[in-house]
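Work Package 4 report. The design task specified in the project plan requires that, given a folded chain encoded as structure tokens, an amino acid be chosen for each position. We show below one input record used in the internal validation round.
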């Protein structure tokens, strides 16, 4: 029991240390930059992170952001390294060549193409595309299979005829025997005028009493066939050294193939012209490809994170533009009812927190306004807090609003209501223009799907029409 607890404790601590690794790397990077007088992170990056998550510590935001990027990179790197190691291990244990021998395919599985590389102590033959033939039957085995094929065809070649004694319909002469595809089949009629080689009946009108015709079946397997041949040996024109070496090697391979065709492997020559030949399976390199792809993939992932951050920043600015008119109208309404600027802002923030707590919907403008209220409550000058609010929102409309609120802190609310009324009208006009612009962008994005739908409709109409014309 104690050992089990110790094991669980060690595993828990180990996993915890692994999870803390990205944060430790970031801390070391920050310390290194501070020691060398460099800024550890981009100012633009820090600004975007701060604006997307207002009120959160900058150190925490930056640490979480880069820790997430590092964890993603480490995870992908580990996965690629693991897959590469598996492929290398699998290739090292599944080589097709063992002691100058290549395992053949068994009967019926056909020949196999393999790329090998041959080299001696002082010459490299390069890559060779080698055809490894399947294991062949011996003469006795081939004859036994031929007898089986002969019996196999007896019920098949009759076709619609009832017996071999009464053939009055076309016969069925298959080009191959199912299950014996490695054997070549040839049909030959003893009387071509009466029976074609494909099994069709010829001129049989005079066969009233019946005419005997032989139907010959020739089964061929490699060299096992009753035929005559003249062995010829031909020589090509004088060849260059590389071609001559290759021919000598291929001749030796063919000779070894012939000598081992009845065995379950094909033997490769160990030497040619007293030169030792070394064989290895030629295949695309895995490790160099992985070393090239891994940095590219990691760079893409790293940049993708920055691009996602940029998209979030753009979406934030769009949301701020859409919510500006709503905020200004609320401030104007509350101030018109007799509340101070600070009181109206605190009331807006309070209502927002209640709504966000009920529905869980957060908005950037009210989060920034909440930050502004906290700054004021912590002792910051009210005017400075409004200016900070305008700078953090970073849009001209909000900077204008913050300037309007700051100016009226000194001279009171006289004229503020009229100014806010004008600003509300302008804000709603801007919102209409912004909404119209977003609608136009949406229409542009819908053009391609609409074209696809038009093509589908055209196909639905044209295909039946075309088929009806063909009928």
């Amino acid at each position: 029991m104690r050992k089990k607890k110790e094991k669980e404790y060690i595993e828990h601590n180990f996993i915890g240390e692994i999870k803390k690794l990205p944060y430790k790397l970031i801390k070391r990077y920050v310390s290194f930059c501070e020691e060398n007088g460099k800024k550890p992170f981009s100012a633009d990056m820090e600004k975007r992170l701060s604006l997307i998550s207002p009120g959160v510590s900058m150190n925490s935001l930056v640490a979480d952001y880069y820790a997430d990027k590092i964890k993603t990179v480490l995870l992908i790197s580990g996965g690629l390294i693991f897959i590469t190691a598996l492929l290398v291990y699998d290739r090292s244990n599944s080589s097709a060549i063992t002691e100058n021998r290549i395992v053949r395919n068994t009967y019926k599985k056909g020949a196999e193409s393999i790329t090998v590389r041959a080299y001696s102590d002082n010459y490299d033959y390069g890559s060779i595309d080698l055809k490894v033939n399947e294991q062949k039957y011996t003469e006795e085995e081939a004859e036994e299979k031929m007898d089986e094929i002969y019996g196999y065809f007896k019920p098949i070649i009759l076709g619609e005829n009832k017996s071999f004694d009464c053939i009055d319909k076309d016969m069925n002469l298959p080009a191959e025997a199912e299950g014996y595809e490695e054997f070549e089949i040839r049909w030959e009629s003893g009387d071509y005028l009466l029976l074609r080689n494909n099994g069709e009946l010829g001129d049989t009108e005079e066969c009233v009493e019946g005419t005997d015709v032989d139907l010959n079946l020739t089964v061929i397997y490699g060299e096992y066939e009753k035929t005559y041949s003249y062995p010829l040996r031909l020589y090509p024109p004088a060849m260059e050294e590389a071609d001559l070496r290759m021919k000598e090697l291929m001749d030796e391979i063919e000779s070894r193939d012939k000598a081992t065709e009845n065995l379950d492997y094909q033997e490769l020559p160990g030497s040619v012209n007293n030169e030792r030949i070394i064989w290895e399976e030629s295949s695309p390199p895995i490790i160099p490809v992985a070393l090239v792809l891994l940095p590219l993939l990691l760079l893409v992932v790293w940049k993708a994170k920055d691009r996602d951050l940029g998209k979030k920043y753009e979406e934030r600015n769009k949301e701020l533009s859409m919510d500006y008119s709503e905020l200004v109208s609320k401030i104007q309404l509350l101030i018109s009812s007799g509340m101070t600027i600070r009181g109206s802002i605190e009331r807006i923030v309070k209502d927002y927190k209640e709504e966000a707590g009920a529905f869980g919907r957060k908005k950037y403008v009210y989060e920034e306004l909440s930050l502004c209220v906290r700054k004021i409550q912590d002792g910051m000058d009210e005017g400075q807090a409004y200016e900070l609010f305008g700078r953090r929102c970073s849009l001209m409309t909000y900077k204008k609003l913050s300037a309007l609120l700051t100016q009226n802190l000194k001279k009171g609310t006289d004229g503020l209501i009229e100014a806010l009324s004008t600003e509300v009208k302008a804000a709603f006009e801007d919102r209409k223009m912004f909404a119209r612009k977003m609608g136009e962008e949406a229409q542009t994005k819908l053009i391609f799907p609409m074209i696809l739908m038009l093509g589908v409709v055209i196909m639905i109409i044209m295909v039946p029409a075309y088929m009806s014309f063909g009928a």
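Residues 310-453 form one domain. Validation will be extended to a larger panel in the next phase.
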